[in-house]
């Protein structure tokens, strides 16, 4: 797996908690408020803590999450699809939320992975600053590298708050991204994937 997919280590080291809180105070002033008023006194501390959760994907180790695979599935070798995996991410351009769902399908090669692990991978990459394209590719590469399936398909549909709340202000528009690798490069497999994603 390439470096971007693996655990990321900040190049210049992490700032201290105090530095992070001071940065929040600067942004509060930039927004036009007074960081010293009562309601905002604890906000820098809360924001620093929230960032640890919202961006916890930088500290996560994808390889260890995807480490457990198993073969004993009675010869099952057809598509496994986990659809509608909800996620929250943040766009790397504006640092505002991306809200979406991921659908992950793969064709096993005599080996499967725990279903929850697919959702965990979405969380790891979601909890980083992202573009939707990169997140789609990273999820695909991580699973492909851990499981070596015959094929993998990943689709993400998401609303970007940077397009809804600000800028062009088009709320409700959805962006779709897909990657199809291995057997899913065949159009018939792509149709089967899409039919299963959309079917209810
Ligand atoms: N391709 C891609 N673009 C994204 C994603 N998230 C946000 N963007 C876009 O990133 C672009 C950044 O454009 P810039 O012109 O540098 O920034 P900006 O002036 O804030 O752009 P506006 O959003 O148009 O106001 C915008 O068009 C966003 O819609 C994403 O996941 N993928
Ligand atoms: Zn954005």
UniProtKB/TrEMBL annotation:
Catalyzed chemical reaction(s): GTP + H2O = 7,8-dihydroneopterin 3'-triphosphate + formate + H(+)
Annotated residues for binding of Zn(2+): 91, 94, 162
Residues covered by the GTP cyclohydrolase I domain: 21-197
Recorded GO MF terms: GTP cyclohydrolase I activity
Enzyme Commission no: 3.5.4.16
Recorded metabolic or biological pathway in which this protein acts: Cofactor biosynthesis; 7,8-dihydroneopterin triphosphate biosynthesis; 7,8-dihydroneopterin triphosphate from GTP: step 1/1
InterPro entries: GTP-CH-I_C/QueF, GTP-CH-I_N, GTP_CycHdrlase_I, GTP_CycHdrlase_I_CS, GTP_CycHdrlase_I_dom
Key words of the record: GTP-binding, Hydrolase, Metal-binding, Nucleotide-binding, One-carbon metabolism, Zinc
Domain of life: Bacteria
Keyword field contains Nucleotide-binding: yes
Similarity comment: Belongs to the GTP cyclohydrolase I family.
Oligomer and partners: Toroid-shaped homodecamer, composed of two pentamers of five dimers. Homopolymer.
Identification of the protein by name: GTP cyclohydrolase 1
Source organism: Rhizobium halophytocola
Gene name of the encoded protein: folE
